[in-house]
Write a structure and sequence with these properties.
The chain is α/β, with parallel strands linked by helices. The chain is built from 4 helices and 5 strands, in the order βαβαββαβα. It is 28% helix and 20% strand. The protein has a 5-stranded mixed sheet with strand order 2-1-3-5-4, sandwiched between helices. Helix 1 links the parallel strand 1 and strand 2. It is globular, with a radius of gyration of 15 Å.
Amino acid sequence: MTGGVLVAGVGNMFLHDDGFGPEVARHLAALPQPLTPGVRVVDYGIRGMHLAYDLLAGVDTLVLVDTVPADGNSAPGSIRVLQVSEADLDGRAVLDPHGMDPAAVLGRLRSMGGSLPATYVVGCVPADLSEGIGLSAAVAAAVPQAVDAVGSLLGRHSSTPS
């Protein structure tokens, strides 16, 4: 992929609400109308190295969909849209080739020869990160809101392939 927008669903579906990102990616991929040209939706799950290599191939805009910590006033199921900059990242973060830590993936891009594209996180505050499959009721109810938030970002930041 060169240029365009990458929507990356990340998380571990075996840790209940951590499967939020992949679930949103599945919903986006199943939309009856295609997304804006130049947009690719991928369920990365816990494949951090796969995400890193796709980013190194060149992306104009990245939209990560994942769980995020509460900000003090956020109840489980709350959607938060965040913008990420180089200043938010630690370039010394350890990249686990067998796991997914989005902050480590993004933080290590420069050392791998890449750069951070315009990056956003569409995050959901989890209710349950214990072992098990399936989203909690609050997080499952937030999936359509997250799909809408991604659509809003795509409307502002999509581009056609180079």
